[in-house]
Design a protein that fits this description.
Shape: globular
Structural class: alpha/beta
Largest sheet: 5 strands, parallel
Number of strands: 5
Low-confidence stretches: none
Order of helices and strands: EHEHEHEHEH
């Protein structure tokens, strides 16, 4: 089973990337048969994402995300929602194209007032693409990053039965 972290932070080496890796490790620990993980870090792909004829690394990233069994979708919160970089990438997928994927939405934010963004903005986008999206998504405050292992681990433990059930039923 493939586990992929999709990171929509435009900064290379971001804290969002670190949190996404923490989430992937938690998935590997909690979900039986979770295999090796791959990461699609959109910061490295940004220059080619708007090209009508995308470079091979963008096409490879689309294939990697499209083939994921479990997809951790992580973004910082910009303007009360996910980044435009993430949206530009996900626009390469048609409606229903992630139907065999369980997508786990995760937003990193500076202020708790944006905590509903994960459910009201990111989750509907992933559902539109056909993904199974267990609830709740995770709204992680920047102040929680030092404790990300515990916070993310508790979240994955809570949604793991939903993910496992979906994967078994496919």
């Amino acid at each position: 089973m493939s586990v992929v972290a999709l990171v929509g932070n435009p900064r290379p080496g971001s804290r969002t990337l670190g949190v996404a890796h923490t989430a992937v490790r938690a998935v590997q620990e909690r979900i039986e048969k979770a295999g090796e993980a791959q990461t699609v870090d959109l910061s490295a792909l940004a220059p080619g994402l708007l090209s009508a004829d995308p470079p091979p690394e963008v096409r490879d990233a689309v294939d990697t995300v499209g083939g994921a069994d479990v997809l951790v979708v992580a973004s910082p919160t910009y303007k009360a929602t996910y980044t435009g970089l993430l949206k530009v990438f996900l626009d390469r997928f048609g409606a229903g194209s992630l139907a065999s994927t369980s997508a786990l939405p995760l937003l990193v934010m500076g202020d708790a007032k944006h905590s509903l963004a994960v459910e009201t903005h990111l989750r509907p986008l992933l559902v539109e693409l056909g993904a199974h999206v267990p609830t709740p998504g995770l709204a992680l405050l920047e102040s929680q990053i030092p404790d990300a292992g515990a916070v993310v681990g508790a979240w994955i433990a809570r949604i793991a039965p939903q993910v496992t059930g979906f994967l078994a039923a496919r």
